[in-house]
Amino acid sequence: MPRSADDITRRRLLASGAAVSAAAIAGCIGGSGNGDGETFHFTQEQAREENFDPVISNDAYSFQVIQHVFDGLYEFDDKLTLQPNLATGEPTVERDGTRYIFEIEEAAEFHNGDDVTAEDVAHSFTAPVEEETENASEYDMIESAEVIDDYQLQVDLGEDPYGPFELQTMGVTVVPKSVRTDDRDEFNTNPIGSGPYEFVELQENEYVEIQRYDDYWGDLDPNLERVRFEAHEDPAGRVSDIRASNTDVIAGIPNDDWDVLESEDGVNLHSAESPTFMYMAFNCNEGPTTNPEVRRAIAHSFSMSDFIESNGANVNSPMYSPIPPVVNDVWEFPEDEYQDMLPEYDPDQAQSLLDEHAPDDFTPTIITPEGIRAQLAERIATRLDEIGYGADVQVLDFATLVDTYTTGNADDYQMYLLGWTGGPDPDFYLYSLFHESQEELNQGHFYEGSDGFHEAIADARNSADQEERYDLYEPIIREIVEELPALPAFTQDNTMASRDYVQDLQAHPEVTRNPTLVADYTNVSVE
């Protein structure tokens, strides 16, 4: 989805830009510890941006709170399929896939007692664009949202359909228009939703608490009465907390601690493969990496599979294209063929290609966030050094990384490592990370592509015919794998560890849905 450079945040772009130091928050972690059920403690792996208005929030860790306080018009189940929630059922689709008519549940109410109406849903669809928020690109295909009556809404797209509309865009989180627009700053830190929990307390940069809403309009009846979210960005600290029963659940199990926690008495582990794409992108705008032979040489210089096996086998899986495996399972692109196309570890071939196509003093700059991607960058630098070249690895904070990789300047970098998370549609990866409109916004490789490359990406997002979209996407994916503007690295799992008195907890593929405390398929409790 298109964003400005300042718009990129951790909900979509996965980097390790810590907003609060681990030391500053280490003393704030504390769980019920005995399963008494009074306050359930969930320890998040990164600090929240403390934006709880869904219209403006674009942060995974704030959304982990938001998803309990607000209802979506549709919501993802545990298979990443949208199911009706505030909508009574599937929409009526007209005008060749460019008009959607939604029926709203008449029983639905916000926590202040106001009815959820079509006007609220219309505002939720259009406000991100009208207010130029970070989420604008998720809804800018909508031309108008017309209220038919209190419980019917007509949404018209532009002249063309939008392929992912029924797969993700319909899952808009619904806010009360009148309350939100009366005082947006107040709403952002003291929101009112229609979900099974209500927002009760915020201590910024420390914790946020939600409480079961006993008058919830729907059928869900949460077992947990009160839930506290705290962030502990130090992985070792999170592991210590769950082992000591200082918290009930932690998110983000470090790879090296998986076996430790798996054998720990009183601790259960939970994992779900997520729709994430971790990658190393090459600067295709300036410098030696504009040559695909140099890109292939670097890919030949190290073994991605060996790196994953030694550094992330418990929590990561290899990828062979820019489409995450969990998404590929739905679309059935020929992943085995892409795997065969990727350069295998061959240091002799790497050296031969670099000797022929790169400068003698070639020492590329690799910029990366901290964590496993920094480890990967160091592995590549070591392997390049072994064949007479090397690399300069720069570990940058999130803001600096964003400002740097979007420049396309060879003096700033030749490669960068980042990640992206989206939904169950190729558009979320191919348009956002490879379309030319996203240069200086979401991506910094500046890949020109073959004739028709960018047009095909745009045509695919403007089609509602899935077979047509497949036929457009498959050659695009094949070209990316062959020409390597970005080298697929691995997909991450969403992981959690809980004390054994926590019942019915399961990891969700979408990071913003963790923890799912209550749904048709689960209802977390303590015993």
Automatic annotation (TrEMBL):
Record domain Solute-binding protein family: where: 82-438
Alphabetically ordered keywords of this record: Signal, Transport
Sample GO molecular function, one term: peptide transmembrane transporter activity
Any one biological process term the GO annotation gives: peptide transport
Tagged with keyword Signal: yes
CC per GO annotation: ATP-binding cassette (ABC) transporter complex; periplasmic space
SUPFAM superfamilies reported in the protein's UniProt record: Periplasmic binding protein-like II
PROSITE patterns: PROKAR_LIPOPROTEIN
CDD domains registered for this protein in UniProt: PBP2_NikA_DppA_OppA_like (cd00995)
Keyword Signal in annotation: yes
Pfam family, one: SBP_bac_5
PANTHER family named among the record's database cross-references: OLIGOPEPTIDE-BINDING PROTEIN APPA (PTHR30290:SF9), PERIPLASMIC BINDING COMPONENT OF ABC TRANSPORTER (PTHR30290)
Family to which this protein belongs: Belongs to the bacterial solute-binding protein 5 family.
Protein name: ABC transporter substrate-binding protein
